[in-house]
Design goal:
- The structure holds two protein chains of two kinds.
- By secondary structure, chain A is of the alpha+beta class.
- Chain A has helices at about 25-35, 70-85, 115-130, 150-160, and strands spanning about 15-20, 40-50, 50-55, 55, 60-65, 85-95, 95-100, 105-110, 135-140, 145.
- In chain A, helix 3 (about 115-130) crosses helix 4 (about 150-160).
- Helix content of chain B is about 25%, strand content about 25%.
- Chain B has helices at about 10-15, 30-40, 45-50; strands at about 1-5, 20-25, 55-60, 60-65, 75-80.
- The chains are: A alpha+beta, B alpha+beta.
- At the A-B interface, strand 5, helix 3 and strand 9 of A face loops of B.
Chain lengths: ~180, ~80
């Protein structure tokens, strides 16, 4: 990923966390929007552990990450989004350790004046998180554990954003 | 030149270690040279690093390609393609 000059990044607030424990969606939304009455939209993406992958029962997931690099990568992805859309704040929380079907695994909140920017930036962040943030999933099935392979569709999902014209949301006339 | 190597996920399990300190022989200057040096250990090292398996390398916590220049004290991580989210 290219390094972006600091001056081009709007004064959006970024919060990233990698943690074992669960998170509280309402509390995270309040923290993100506190004191900023210019926010007109917050989109939230909540990823859950599901019990089926590649036709096998998944009993549990185990998440490993690269401490240090992970946080830097998440901040970078948030910054990349803030260059493309006029954002007021981004919060990214990813859980690690052992998780079970139904558990929350990832939360992305994006705050903006307008909904389109908030929707699109949220999808952008998730697409890049899946291809650039150093997390690895191990699935526990009744037959034992196995590492999850990266999916080609995740890479094509991230690549489509190169076609997005950054000027598209450069003004406030699109809501 | 001394470097710190980190291995994650499948590679950590296959290599039987999460981290090692390595003094590189004279002449190894790049990520490519380092990977070839590791693959020469044979067995799992050769299978994972010199075969068909796909992996990624980060230098000082930034994604790096094979031509990236190493330096004394570098942190080099080798891991499978990421699968978070």
């Amino acid at each position: 990923m290219e390094t972006l000059p600091q001056a081009t990044i709007p004064s959006a607030r970024f919060h990233v966390a990698v943690q074992v424990g669960d998170f509280d969606l309402q509390a995270e939304m309040r923290t993100l929007s506190a004191g900023d009455r210019g926010i007109g939209a917050i989109t939230s993406f909540l990823g859950l552990v599901r019990d089926l992958n590649l036709a096998d029962d998944v009993v549990a997931l185990e998440l490993e990450h690269y401490p240090g690099m992970t946080e830097k990568a998440l901040i970078r992805i948030a910054e990349e989004a803030a260059v493309r859309w006029p954002l007021h704040g981004v919060s990214i929380i990813h859980r690690v350790g052992k998780l079970y079907p139904g558990d929350a695994i990832v939360l992305v909140l994006v705050a903006s004046a307008h909904r389109h920017a908030a929707f699109e930036a949220n999808a952008f962040i998730m697409d890049f998180l899946k291809t650039r943030a150093p997390f690895w999933k191990k699935e526990w099935t009744p037959e034992g554990p196995r590492w999850v392979d990266a999916r080609e569709t995740d890479y094509s999902a991230a690549a489509r954003w190169h076609k997005v014209v950054s000027e598209q949301y450069g003004n406030d006339e699109h809501d | 030149m001394q470097v710190t190597l980190l291995y994650f996920a499948r590679l950590r399990e296959r290599f039987g270690m999460a981290e090692e300190q390595l003094s590189l022989p004279e002449g190894i200057q790049t990520v490519a040279g380092l990977i070839a040096h590791l693959a020469a250990r044979g067995d799992a090292w050769a299978e994972e690093l010199a075969g068909e398996r796909v992996y990624r390398v980060a230098l000082d916590q930034e994604m790096a390609d094979f031509s990236a220049q190493l330096h004394h004290g570098a942190e080099v991580a080798v891991f499978p393609p990421v699968t978070g989210g």
